[in-house]
Amino acid sequence: MIPVEVYRGRAVAVLGLARTGLSAARALAAGGATVLGWDDDEGARRRARDAGVAVRDPAAIAWPDLAALVVSPGVPLHHPKPHDGVARARAAGVTLVGDLDLFAAARPKARVVGITGTNGKSTTTALIGHLSAALGVPTAVGGNLGTPVLDLAPLPDDGLYVLELSSYGLDLAGNLRCAVGVLLNVSPDHLDRHGSMAAYVAAKRRLFALQPAGATAVVGVDDAIGRETVALLRAEGRLCVVPVAVGQPLEDGVVVVDGRIVHASGGRRTPVADLTGHPTLIGAHNAQNAAAAVAALLALGHEPAAIAAALTTFPGLPHRLETVATIDGVRFVNDSKATNADAAARALACFERVHWIIGGRAKAGGLAGTEALWPRVRRAYLIGEAAEAFAQQFGGQVAALRCGTLDAAVRRAACAARKDGPGAVVLLSPACASFDQFRDFEARGAAFRAAVAELGPGCATGDAA
User: Fold this and answer.
1) Domains in the chain and their CATH numbers?
2) 81 is known as an active-site residue
3) What SS3 state is found at 138?
4) CB < 8 Å & 24+ apart, contacts of 228-232
5) Which of 83, 119, 130, 144 is catalytic?
6) Neighbours of 442 (CB within 10 A)
């Protein structure tokens, strides 16, 4: 834990008491603050009480007496309307902060690499953390990925914090200073929270606005927003800008061509690493992730040969194109972290003869953007709230089977894939949030693993698709 002492002897409220909020409450209490907490969910309030947090309804808090309100990432700040607690804090003139700013206050000299983007940020965060640790640097990995930032261990001054940064967290951040900031890509997502694509893009770009002059901005330029971001940053002239691309030439930056990562700078092209056959970095999207990670490590002063050697040992990320089993020649792939259509499209592009398990709580646009990859899909197995809408969206172009639950979909898909023969893939890449049936994408991925583990030989009665 990283204690936060900036509010020692003062009262602070924490709004939202899930993983990040409880982490902030613990760190503030360890730093000597008096902490009050609130969550709209009774279960979260109960768990907070059990953890020793004094729970108070926003209507019962003496807001003028507070030094700050810590707002958890999932709490609305603006759209569709501010949470009641946020509105009360603003009316009383109380400062709003997030856990990223608490971290920045507690560790002002910390070296940080911050990674954001619509897709790929978790893999890239894990990969940068892996490379840094393999190169002998004291490293802590967390943020939006797994461990909340304030639950990370305090590192020495030569250590490195590698943080996945969501648009929610960046929306509130004001003091986080990243030595290297990484923006992988931007496509429509979380518009129900941000209200518009422009607001979502602005939240992502905030990462660079917070960086000190001379810091490095690594930007994926395989999408129009990334290219525009590079142009804006170069015109501003405050940061060292490193573009990253897959399959397109760059005069300066890091590019992947035919599976090989190359660093282009000042007219020189330096080969760094070969991704061909890498078992956990398959597909063009992972090529972008790896190129961004290499760019970050180069910016931190590491040698290409050492980075390449460390890259070969990356074990991959759970729930992201994770092969959980191969049974009778059929590969079962857990891509539960694909919570939008763009992420699912990246997974589909990696395989032929796909038995695709999809559904959950759909994002805006549903399956839009996956259409070009539908010829790879042998059949879609629909689960959750989105099942009927997805069946309609396929419009008969993809054979679709309504399965309702994930375990039923796994059984039906496994049976059909076995008949399809060796080389077929059962892919859970839901293109949806998990919250209709599961606590989070991790619980959904664990349920997929469990369902695959329970598969027996052949097909049970009623499972034939």
Assistant:
1) 11-97 (3.40.50.720), 101-311 (3.40.1190.10), 322-453 (3.90.190.20)
2) no
3) coil
4) 229/183, 229/205, 232/205
5) 144
6) 15
Selecting among 190, 285, 355, 363, the annotated active-site residue is: 190
Q: How much is the average pLDDT of 114-120?
A: 93
Rounded to whole angstroms, the Cα distance separating 138 from 152 reads 12
In whole angstroms, give the CA distance from residue 274 to residue 278.
8
Parallel, antiparallel, or unpaired: how do β-strands 330-334 and 425-428 relate? parallel
How many Å apart are CA 241 and CA 263, to the nearest integer?
A: 13
Contact indicator for 304, 298 with CB cutoff of 8 Å: yes
Active site residue 289: no
Catalytic residue among 83, 121, 285, 355: 121
Which of 318 and 38 is assigned the larger pLDDT? 38
**At which residue do the structure tokens 């000597």 appear?**
32
Residue 375 to residue 176: CA distance in whole angstroms: 45
Query: Whole-prediction pTM value?
Result: 0.85
Query: Which one-letter DSSP state was computed for residue 212?
Result: P
Cα angle value 436/441/444 (rounded, 5°): 75
* Mean pLDDT computed over 25-30: 97
Q: Say what the pLDDT of residue 190 is.
A: 64
Question: Residue 286 catalytic?
Answer: no
